[in-house]
Specification:
It contains 13 helices and 12 strands. By secondary structure, it is an alpha/beta fold. Helix 6 (159-169) links the parallel strand 4 (139-144) and strand 5.
Length: 425
């Protein structure tokens, strides 16, 4: 590339920018870009997306809103001390962490804030627009990675919806990686539809529900009757503290239950219990107990245990979503990106529920993103790819979908094999 030609830079505006997940996103992107770590967990760095025209990791610029004041470099040091980030990484990417810290603005509303909802939205949108201008960005994507909030009970917009409205007002694509309301609030439905912007969500599928989206279809495809499916989550950190609130936990569990209902075709007995264990920090353990009937009514049980680090599981998915959504915006696509359901417990739009089928839709979407720069206005809702701007690179998408089917089978096979052998897949 000639020296005079610069790569367009893309902004990623993080709601909850000083949290564990956001810090891992920023530090991880810097580490992969510098060649300090491999791109493990980044689906957009795998061969099916090589020609999708996604923004390079090195072109991403980070900023965001937060209501806490712990500087990002110090937060990264704490994560390294807890084993979430590799030892020495915060020092190695200190420049990138400091640069992002300079782009973080006060969030809200905080106690005592007397601004109206519209004033808050206007202020948040102004912060985002200033970020885009100041950093000379081609576009920006707003991603909500803040702590889970309870479902709203009245007409007032919760914080997540204020930020979502600000993203629309600033002309930015939006991703809700949390179970919080965001664009799902009835007051924003019309704005989301008329904004002409792509959006995706909600509630990132990182651990227990990821496994459920593989096992649910397995039981259905084997014609095995699931009688009960119960689970327990033990977790600490900010997410554990937030989910200690029963209303917030209920919002979180709704997505987990939807995956089972959609993949099994029925809602089995059982609940998911979430327990805050501060000593676990950013680590979590998820246990499932599945009671099912086999041939001649023989009663059997499958138990799974998932132990993982929330931030490390979520960060690569957020980088994927930012790149895919930014590319969709560049192509002029709008509306719910249902093909990104692979990443979510409660995805927007219409799409498959099983992980294998969702992966196929995702790879097909990557194929449709191929081509030139900006396309005409298009929608990627339930009728994705049916002509217009949404139908990009048809033959490539077809071959990608065929490849996806094989890969999806491999995913399901690996999961089932791991469960049989007792591995933490």
């Amino acid at each position: 590339m000639p020296a005079s030609v610069s790569v367009p830079r893309v902004g990623v505006w993080l709601i909850g920018a000083r949290g564990s997940v956001a810090t891992t996103v920023v530090a991880g992107c810097a580490a992969v870009t510098a060649g300090l770590q491999p791109p493990t967990g980044l689906i957009t760095e795998t061969p099916p997306f090589a020609d999708s025209g996604l923004p390079a990791l090195s072109s991403l610029v980070f900023g965001g809103h937060d209501t806490v004041d712990c500087p990002l470099p110090k937060r990264a040091e704490a994560l390294a001390a807890g084993g979430v980030l590799p030892h020495g990484l915060p020092a190695a990417v200190a420049a990138e962490l400091t640069a992002t810290e300079r782009e973080i603005r006060p969030g809200g509303p905080l106690p005592g804030d007397t601004r109206t909802e519209d004033e808050l939205i206007t202020a948040f949108a102004a912060d985002i627009r200033s970020f885009v201008r100041r950093c000379r960005l081609a576009r920006a994507v707003v991603v909500n990675v803040a702590s889970t909030e309870p479902a709203p009970t009245g007409d007032a917009l919760p914080p997540s919806s204020l930020y979502a409205a600000a993203a629309l007002r600033a002309g930015c694509a939006y991703v809700n990686f949390t179970p919080s309301t965001g664009l799902h609030h009835p007051a924003l439905a019309g704005q989301a539809e008329s904004a002409g912007l792509p959006y995706a969500g909600r509630d990132g599928k990182t651990g227990q529900t990821l496994l459920r989206s593989v096992l649910g279809p397995m039981f259905t495809q084997r014609a095995l009757s699931v009688r009960a499916w119960s689970g327990t989550n033990l977790l600490g950190g900010g997410d554990g503290a937030a989910l200690a609130n029963p209303a917030a936990a209920a919002a979180k569990n709704a997505g987990k239950e939807r995956v089972l209902a959609d993949t099994l075709g029925t809602t089995p007995e059982g609940e998911v219990h979430i327990d805050d264990v501060p000593a676990l920090g950013d680590w979590k353990t998820a246990w499932d107990h599945i009671a099912f009937d086999g041939f001649l009514g023989t009663r059997m049980v499958l138990q799974t245990t998932w132990q993982g680090c929330d931030s490390a599981l979520a960060a690569p998915l957020i980088l994927d979503l930012a790149r895919l959504t930014a590319r969709a915006a560049e192509r002029g696509l709008s509306g719910p990106l249902s093909a990104l359901g692979f990443y979510f417990k409660d995805p927007v739009g219409e799409g498959a529920s099983g992980l294998g089928e969702q992966y196929g839709e995702l790879v097909g979407f990557g194929g449709r993103l191929r081509g030139g720069g900006s396309g005409g206005a298009g929608s990627l809702g339930s009728g994705e790819g049916d002509g217009g701007a949404g139908d990009v690179g048809g033959s490539g998408a077809a071959s990608a979908s065929a490849s996806a089917s094989a890969s999806a089978s491999a995913v399901a096979s690996a999961a089932a094999s791991a469960v049989r052998s007792g591995e933490q897949w």
